[in-house]
Amino acid sequence: MSGRKGPRPTDGAKEQGRAPGRGSGKPERRQSHRDIDERPGLQARQVAARLIAAVIDKQTSLDGLTDAATGHPHLRQLEARDQALVKAILTSALRFRGTIEAEIAKRLERPLPSGAASLRHVLHVGAAQILCLDVPDSAAVDLAVASANADPRAARFSGLVNAVLRRIAREAKRLPDLQADPRQNCPDWLWNRLVDQYGSERAAGMAGAHLARAPIDLTVKSDPEGWATRLGGRAIGTHSVRLVAIEGPVSGLDGFEAGEWWVQDAAAALPVRLFGDVAGKRVADLCAAPGGKTAQLAAAGALVTALDQSASRIRRLKENLERLQLAAETLTGDVMAFAPERPFNAVLLDAPCSSTGTIRRHPDVAYTKDDAEVQKLADLQLRLLTKAADFVEAGGMLVFANCSIDEREGEDVARAFLQARPDYRLDPVDPTEPRKLRICRLTRRDPAHDARDDGRRRGRWWSRRFLRRQVPSPGRVISRKPPSSLLTFLCVRHWR
Ligand SMILES: C[S@@+](CC[C@H](N)C(=O)[O-])C[C@H]1O[C@@H](n2cnc3c(N)ncnc32)[C@H](O)[C@@H]1O
Q1: ipTM greater than 0.95
Q2: Does the predicted TM-score (pTM) go above 0.95?
């Protein structure tokens, strides 16, 4: 929305430390805790500030904090409408964190005092509502002031909160007129990684895309065109439907109760497709929960063993399969301790990763992950992949996938794995169908092979440039074959 919303604030600029006003701009007594607790909407803002603190100060994942069953108790005790508001505030506050910070800083006479983290969070929650959400400015300002008053660490700055937010409400542009600078909203560590790997132009495009809201994709058991019409979306490929926006929760949509579809990003549905026909095959889905890929495999007729170390996530996987009327063997445990009685025809390792390919949907990732974490996860992925390789029968297929855009979690892991495991070679993907979904292919340099086929070698370099134009989320397909000098590296890159 753009333009002015709600009653106009009235008080002046640069009033740091002045007493807060409520709508009228007049000073008022500080509210008692009892008053504050009774004010509608206040709890939601306080919870939002608390959760932003958890993300920014403690690098806690928003997914975990907002999980319906196991999320933060203060969030779960709110009414559904307030929970939705908190999530909207958090998403905007994180997605536009750089812009919000700059708008606040412009209206401060001096930088916020060191150790004023909770004051900063209150300001960000207020500014996110004013700049990004359809909340009346007066409510955003008043409830931010009340949040500050209720917080002993921020109470003495409630006048500052009032003044700064009133000025933002009066002066700043709002979405969609607000031209948020992608670079400003991309933390340095991530920006440097993107520039190093993709160049600054591409990095700017990717950072810009992070500011857009992710669509909602469904994987349908069948008839994507029919479901697209019924749900007002569009079909993508053979099994996905993309919805731009929905009213209310997805569970209210046609076909949910009947188990006709599940929520799964179109990109996340690609790795399973790399297996080809899995009907009747024994497939292990390692790191399986909450089960989007398990469901795909089961729906395609595979005999699936789904393993995940998280008991609560395995519970969710089971609930999902039950709704979808699909079957799989489910196991709770660590891949590193898994010892199947016999090898599988195929194994999928959808490894834990930095999730930097999902920032549109999970803007907290930019703040909960960093360079060191990416390397730690890459090391873990190599360990998991090497272990998973033992579960594949000779001639079987191993697909390694994750949703990171960092080559340390992609190309580097595959390279190190192949060096350690000469019984595997990289296997080509049939490009015909997935090409629509921007899959590109890279052939790794092999002198003997290059001498045989010059044209393919040229194709390789074209692919490398092509890759640079894509925005990635990698999938890896690796077949277990006798040692071979032909190494073909296939890389699935797409928006997620
Ligand atoms: C990217 S998610 C998997 C998403 C899932 N494949 C899907 O499509 O719905 C990664 C999963 O790996 C699990 N995980 C992480 N380390 C693990 C390990 N050592 N053993 C088993 N599961 C693990 C996590 O609990 C998490 O559920």
Answers
A1: yes
A2: no
